[in-house]
């Protein structure tokens, strides 16, 4: 009874945190608690009435009441109140900048003058390498100084507070360590929210870390060079990593260290990290349950003849050391709490219920930090562990015709996939096609590397050379694992984009999974529930793909990037600068369930040599590629693009200015070889994309009849005023809003509707609707919740 009551109260707390996503979330949990109390009040009375039945001899006997295991109605009321308090507690714990937070001192408005500042503070993390090959670390700011500029003397030094996200040139970050007091010269900036559908929300990420500002550093000065280097557990972590990298090299060394300590504690190369994520093996890089159970198994096996108290003490110390080395990650904390519960059960000689310990671990962690309820790593770790507890036995039972080892090898990844895949579809919209098979094949390699890595790490703490020698034995298993994942990643259809599912689809699918878990009728008809779940994902995706017509103008800095979705036919115009393909275009197309680009048109407005096309071609094939170029000859990048297109049976066709491209839904034409002006005809509308040209040149072209008046105009902010007043389009889209007040006032008097992708984000249009800014639509949706 106590366990059931505690279970309901813990669930009330977790549901209260989850319901923070809906209006009056805690009130709904309280209402559910009251309804539960009313429904079970009568059943609680029935519990007190003895049920009798007559036997063959005419005597009566008591029969057990079927409601006797239900908790008292008071428990449901307590759970409802706990859920209400959870939503209040969540709002209270949301980080907010103080009046002296360093983010309050960032200049606002359209100020193009960069103000150099010197921020003094203490490092609270060791430097890491970013994708752009810069060093990154967290700085606890204490003082802010302005650097003298042409406009006047610097201001008075200010005392500030707040956690700062700092990036610096990699050489400047070399040799820094946590606890140092430094001064960083650079430029403060406000983090940006996601500007495009499916893009990374940098502002949200920093807010979850308790930070509200970033600093692009240029130079670092150590404040006190005479201060001795303070000892910390990060030095132990660094000793292990260096020892394993010494003989294994890169990337094998960091990979082994990441599989022992977790990828967040190790500076793992991004190409290896991305390789594991795309293959569906990201869990192998997250130190959590597998490593915890492995450590406890080794400790208990070595001390099997010792007293229970000794086993408990050594196991507890091992878990604490492991937790400290991994950096107190949510997934590791969850695994350590469950491991500690297992040790308690061993010490008390009582069997521990894994489901109860999982729920207790989740509740304790969410009391410590309720914001983790929306941390994707925490959610996936909790769901995967839940799947291992409740679903593996059922799958293993159905695979009893196989040897137990093989059945377990299949059941574990399959159960974890069943419980985590719906959430992955909500966030990413992509299914790794060979993930299940690859998990089964790679499990022996991961086990050998993890066991060997832990032994090597322990040896490195005593004698680094011994740790290096033991790590060297893992070269071939690690190399084979990388090659195995690369092989599956290069197979056709290695990942399928089905599009991001909605919240109601997610809730319905998890409701079906829970029914199969708890209800006997659904357990016998699990295949029927699977068909419903597949239908909930595939049918809406198919309907949307075959009925949707939408134009999306992406926020991509100074180059126009346009995606046209026409009932399953996808056209992409331009790819932007390097990085735009990986971080802007691909996430959007995956969210939309796009697996192939049918038409690609490259006009290369900014002369960036089309670097982002190669980023796109790494994940998506292009059926027809048309490249406008005013310069004769093939560059190395152009040849690489052509080879990648033809590698996937696509066609590559270079075009000269003046040639038209007809995709069926649009007609595109680069006007001439002198001006980067691309004209589009889309469903009777005329679109004009104007690059970096002088307005007078466009005016000459317009007056000579070489250019028609467009309904939609895209141009840079520098030429926006002149082009709008001259062409008078219905809608004008500019890359940024860096205009003076006089120009904005004149433009506001025109009939043209203005959008700025720099502040409005991506701009989308459908034939039945109006132009809509992504950031405004996102804010409206958030305000409704």
From TrEMBL:
Native source species: Halotia branconii CENA392
NCBIfam families reported for this sequence: ComEC_N-term (TIGR00360)
Localization, UniProt: Cell membrane
Keywords of this entry: Cell membrane, Membrane, Transmembrane, Transmembrane helix
Ranges for domain DUF4131: 22-222
Principal location listed in the UniProt entry: membrane
Name listed for the protein in its UniProt record: ComEC/Rec2 family competence protein
InterPro entries: ComEC_N, Competence_DNA_uptake, DUF4131, RibonucZ/Hydroxyglut_hydro
Entry keyword Transport: no
Membrane-spanning intervals of the chain: 6-39, 281-302, 309-325, 331-348, 355-374, 496-519, 526-543
Cellular compartments per GO CC: plasma membrane
Bilayer topology: Multi-pass membrane protein
Domain ComEC/Rec2-related protein: 260-522
């Amino acid at each position: 009874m106590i366990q059931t009551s505690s279970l309901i109260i813990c669930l009330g707390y977790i549901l209260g945190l989850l319901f923070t996503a809906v209006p009056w979330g805690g009130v709904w949990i309280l209402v559910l608690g009251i309804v539960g109390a009313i429904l079970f009040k009568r059943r609680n009375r029935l519990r007190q009435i003895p049920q009798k039945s007559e036997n063959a001899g005419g005597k009566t006997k008591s029969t057990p009441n079927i409601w006797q295991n239900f908790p008292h109605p008071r428990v449901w009321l307590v759970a409802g109140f706990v859920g209400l308090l959870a939503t209040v507690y969540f709002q209270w714990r949301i980080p907010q900048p103080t009046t002296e937070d360093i983010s309050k001192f960032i200049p606002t408005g359209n100020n193009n003058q960069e103000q150099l500042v010197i921020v003094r503070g203490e490092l609270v993390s060791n430097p890491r390498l970013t994708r752009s090959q810069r060093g990154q670390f967290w700085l606890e700011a204490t003082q802010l100084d302005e650097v003298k500029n042409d406009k006047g003397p610097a201001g008075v030094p200010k005392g500030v507070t707040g956690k700062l996200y700092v990036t610096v040139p990699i050489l400047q970050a070399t040799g820094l360590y946590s606890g140092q007091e430094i001064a960083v010269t650079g430029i403060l900036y406000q983090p940006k929210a996601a500007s495009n559908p499916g893009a990374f929300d940098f502002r949200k990420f920093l807010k979850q870390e308790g930070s509200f500002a970033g600093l692009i550093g240029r130079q670092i000065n150590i404040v006190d060079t005479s201060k001795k280097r303070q000892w910390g557990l990060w030095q132990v972590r660094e000793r292990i990593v260096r020892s394993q990298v010494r003989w294994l090299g890169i990337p094998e060394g960091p990979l082994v260290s990441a599989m022992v300590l977790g990828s967040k504690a190790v500076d793992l190369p991004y190409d290896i990290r991305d390789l594991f994520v795309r293959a569906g093996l990201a869990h192998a890089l997250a130190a959590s349950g597998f490593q915890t159970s492995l450590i406890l198994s080794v400790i208990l096996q070595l001390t099997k003849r010792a007293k229970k108290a000794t086993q408990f003490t050594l196991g507890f110390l091992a878990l604490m050391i492991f937790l400290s080395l991994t950096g107190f990650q949510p997934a590791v904390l969850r695994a350590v709490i469950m491991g500690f519960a297992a040790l308690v059960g061993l010490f008390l000689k009582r069997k521990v219920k894994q489901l109860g310990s999982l729920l207790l671990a989740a509740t304790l962690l969410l009391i410590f930090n309720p914001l983790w309820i929306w941390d994707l790593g925490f959610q996936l770790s909790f769901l995967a562990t839940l799947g291992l507890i409740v679903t593996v036995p059922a799958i293993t039972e159905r695979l009893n015709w196989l040897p137990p080892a093989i059945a377990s090898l299949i059941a574990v990844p399959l159960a974890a996939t069943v419980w985590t895949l719906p959430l992955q579809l909500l966030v990413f919209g992509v299914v790794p096609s060979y993930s299940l098979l690859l998990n089964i094949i790679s499990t022996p390699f991961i086990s050998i590397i993890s066991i060997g890595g832990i032994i090597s790490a322990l040896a490195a703490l005593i004698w680094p050379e011994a740790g290096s020698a033991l790590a060297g034995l893992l070269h071939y298993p690690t190399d084979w694992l990388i090659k195995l994942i690369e092989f599956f990643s290069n197979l056709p259809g290695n990942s399928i984009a089905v599009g991001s599912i909605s919240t109601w689809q997610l809730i319905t699918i998890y409701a079906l999974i829970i029914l199969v878990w708890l209800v006997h009728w659904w357990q016998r008809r699990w295949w029927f529930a699977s068909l419903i779940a597949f239908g909930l994902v595939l049918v809406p995706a198919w309907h949307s793909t075959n009925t949707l017509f939408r134009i999306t103008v992406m926020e991509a800095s100074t180059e126009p990037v346009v995606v046209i979705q026409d009932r399953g036919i996808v056209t992409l115009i331009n790819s932007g600068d390097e990085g735009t393909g990986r971080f802007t275009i691909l996430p959007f197309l995956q969210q939309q369930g796009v697996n192939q680009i049918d038409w690609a048109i490259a006009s290369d407005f900014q002369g960036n040599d089309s670097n982002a096309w190669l980023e796109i071609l790494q994940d998506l094939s292009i059926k027809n590629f048309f490249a406008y170029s005013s310069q004769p000859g093939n560059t190395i990048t152009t040849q690489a693009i052509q080879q990648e297109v033809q590698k996937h049976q696509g066609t590559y066709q270079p075009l000269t200015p003046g040639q038209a491209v007809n995709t069926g839904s649009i007609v595109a034409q680069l006007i001439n070889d002198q001006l980067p002006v691309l004209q589009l005809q889309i469903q009777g509308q005329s679109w004009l994309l104007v690059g970096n040209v002088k307005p007078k040149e466009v005016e000459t072209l317009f007056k000579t009849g070489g250019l028609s008046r467009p309904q939609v105009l895209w141009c840079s902010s520098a030429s926006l005023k002149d082009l709008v007043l001259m062409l008078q389009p219905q809608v004008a889209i500019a890359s940024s809003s860096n205009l003076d007040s006089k120009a904005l006032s004149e433009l506001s008097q025109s009939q043209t509707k203005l959008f700025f992708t720099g502040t409005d984000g991506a701009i989308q249009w459908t034939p039945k609707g109006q132009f809509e800014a992504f950031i405004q639509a996102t804010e409206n949706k958030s305000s409704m919740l």
